[in-house]
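Continued from yesterday's entry.
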Amino acid sequence: MPLGPVLAIANRGEIAIRIARTARRLGWEPVLLIGTPDIDSYAAREVGRYEPVGPAGSELDPALVVAAASRARANALHPGYGFLSERPDLSQACIDAGITFIGPSPETLALCGDKIATRHAAARAGVPTLPASEPLTLEDDAAWSDAAMTVGFPLIAKVTSGGGGRGLRVVETASSVDAAIRSALREAGASSAGTTLYLERYVERARHVEVQVAGNGSDAVALGDRDCSIQRRHQKVVEEAPAFGLTDDLRRNLHDYAVAMIQE
């Protein structure tokens, strides 16, 4: 029988182990939700209790994951990061099953998965944004050139729902706009990242700094920041926290903007 409330962990490896250790310190019993190939993994042995989700790949299916959490009589589910953590359907499936999702609401996850909707939320919160076009599709090719000239060069074509560095193309000149947009849309289509994009002014030699924020639906607080500027193909390779070389004022402004946006 469970010794305390049960926390289902929908992740694996070092991430799952860290979550489990914290759960135990807080009086929760962790249970690992894993595919059958991971049953003999170090994480499964370290956590001590697991619930099989199904064959390889099933751990990426929100319905199967939540069904496993229900079988484990979980009170809450923690997705860790990566994998399912940004999936609105996982958050919603937990709500439907009466399991507390340790993460944002389905509405927030859906908004943050749409770059254009996120830009609009940032603007409403008073966060500065770069010049950008309206949404564009393959059928709008006659408008691509005018949109690019309005945004200005250099620019970057961004697929609206793309992630993991997919569907991004930097454009230096007007003659490269058509090929860049078609390439971004092809890549996004191949990875099911969507068929809509927009153009945004590209900042050369910029740094990628993120602010971690936690909220409870009404209040929010900035927990810290990290520099993610070392990347390959728009994917992070090295992350350093706290972000180095920021003045106190700049760090405070970044934190304030992040909190304002999460409260929006």
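--- second protein ---
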Amino acid sequence: MTKLAWDKLLSGVRRKDLHGDGEAMGTAASRTEVERDYDRILFATPTRRLADKTQVYPMEENDSVRNRLTHSHEVSNLARSIGIKLAFDHAKEVFGPEHEALQVKRNVPAMLAAVGLAHDLGNPPFGHEGEAAIGHWFRRLQSNNPALSVQDDFLSFDGNAQTLRLLTRLQVLNDSFGLNLTCGTLAALIKYPAVYGGDIHGLGKHGIFQSERDVAKEVWEQTGLSAGQRHPLTYVMEACDDIAYSVIDAEDTVKKGYASFYDLMDYLESHDSGDPVIRDVVNKSRKKNAEFKKGEISSRQLDDISMQMFRVKAIAEMVPAATEVFVDNIDSIMSGATDPGFELIKKSRCSALCKAAKKFDRRYGFQHRDVLKLELKGTHYISEMLTILWKAVSSQENEPDAYDRFVYGDISENYRYVYEKSAKDDYARCQLVCDVVSGMTETYLVNRCNEYKALRHEIS
């Protein structure tokens, strides 16, 4: 792998520019190109839809429990914070003597905020269970139709690959560039730079559909990257996702009433193995809890504010720890010398804290009966919707009945436009139904599925 250069990694070139389709809209308003990326993502419809998608707890009615949108805003905030630290306190050692010319104080925090906000846009309803449900449905489809060509893109469907597709293909009607983000931001967004059907490069899974192979190639050419090689800022985004997943999800687990602050403290203490970071965070959290006890507040409120303090203390340890590892390893990151499994948090002094918190989340939150029950319902609805859509899409080449014409016509015009421009083969049909389902919110999925089934019942 060639040594990376920040002037390319922070590329403000957009794919439209590469194809001669760029147009100055006069809307920059003194923003850099990278800063504009964040704003485009913020105002995009799929971003708003994240408010009705699962972070941990499906179809949650309590507004104080996080959904996928609030999770994404928090990851974005954490990533921007690390970006500010890197750009202001470590500019020369990380970005080199040309850091002023590269405007790293503006572009690095903005790029990290953008990829943090966008990183989960491709996730289907019901989170990771939704991804698994899509893959399972396609494996069943392939088993029942051996002559059908179903690619790994769908048999092992992944929301990260759908995110890249969503941002580069599906967002603007009559346009093949999506939100037309900068190549630098798109490169930093690709968590698994491996194309389905090809080498996995030790990354654990593929993160680019075959349909976006050329998009990835263009992005890599502009940023100096190649297949299997992550953008350096991707490591930061991943670390911030880990922080949110471990620490903040624990706060929501307690807020749901599935565990208490004391359950978390006891669990961490039983897993500290003498780890100084865990011990310090627990001691500081218990100290604040003891202070709060002196007030006349309910046990639920005590849990609430004690968990807030735990979150503050834990993040105060994890953010600087991730930053330190990034700075200390910048030479190997830029030269591509890190191992495929390199992660900032895993290499940091907070590794044990993150690992223990994730185990707590899984034991008390993710595996709770109520959560598993809702995930099962979500899996059922996804399977039902895919079956309905597959029949409607497949029938369009022949003589569809009124029901299938209705369902097909209900598909987003953006998605149908992309499909109509394709070869309309098995791959394109699989992709269309994935586009539709992954773009749905949970409420919309349930309501539409029930509506379609009721209509079918009425006319049968």
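The CA atoms of residues 190 and 207 lie 7 Å apart. The two ends are 60 Å apart (CA to CA). Will compare against the first tomorrow.
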